[in-house]
Amino acid sequence: MGQTAPSINTYNNAGYTTSPVANDGIWDNVVVKVNYSVIDDPEILSIARDFIRMELESANRSALKKESMVDWLSTDIVVLKVVVELVNNGDKPIYYMTNAFCEVCFNATVCNVRRFEPIAWRVEEPIALLKITVDEGEVYPLTISCTLDLRYWKVVPGASVVNEFYYVVTKPFRGAVKAKAVICSAQLGNKCEIVEGSTKIVI
């Protein structure tokens, strides 16, 4: 796992998939759990609105303000906290495919201050990025940047890894969130499988 400065790829609320290669039963005891909670604390919502206001005023997001059907500065919002947990219930180590980190960061000000936490988050060695589907409501399109390096992170038997992600959504909201992790039997091995977890969201 090299520690050289990685390059960055930026996109909005995207997930990734890969085709399964093999299944020797290694993944039978690997679980991806997805849970969520709703944050409606006035202080956190104020931080969320300040973050959105600052981003909408930035040059690279000005088009969103014109094209969006939602007035994000006045509509009823909450912060959606999603917790993803990868659990190895087996008797052998596993490795999940990952990268150095992913973060919400549209300029240096957001990256270098803690003012906008938890809206401006960073997850190191992410298990997976999330895909949110919407039946009712809207998800604010956060700009998520990820390093382009490839890593294999070891999870020993009986251990787990937890990631936390935060999103701003309108209220009411109905939909689902899914996480797909790429699990391998060895570093740089060719025996990998997708293990996914999901949950419905009702706010």
Word description of this protein:
The chain is 13% helix and 44% strand. It is mainly β and 203 residues long. The protein has a single domain, classed as Immunoglobulin-like (Sandwich), CATH 2.60.40.1470. The strands form 3 sheets. Strands 4, 7, 9, 11 and 12 form a 5-stranded antiparallel β-sheet that branches. It has a 4-stranded antiparallel β-sheet with strand order 1-8-5-6, with no helix packed on it. The longest helix has 15 residues, at 42-56. 26% of the residues are buried. Mean pLDDT is 83; it is low at 1-23.
Summarize the structure in short.
The chain is mainly β and 203 residues long. The chain has three helices and twelve strands; from the N terminus they run ββααβββαβββββββ. The chain has a single domain, classed as Immunoglobulin-like (Sandwich).
Number of helices: 3
Please bin the fraction of helical residues. 10-25%
Strand content: 35-45%
CATH topology: Immunoglobulin-like
Question: Strand pairing plus helix content: what structural class?
Answer: mainly beta
Could you name the CATH homologous superfamily? ApaG domain
Distance between the termini: 40 Å
- Can you tell me the CATH architecture? Sandwich
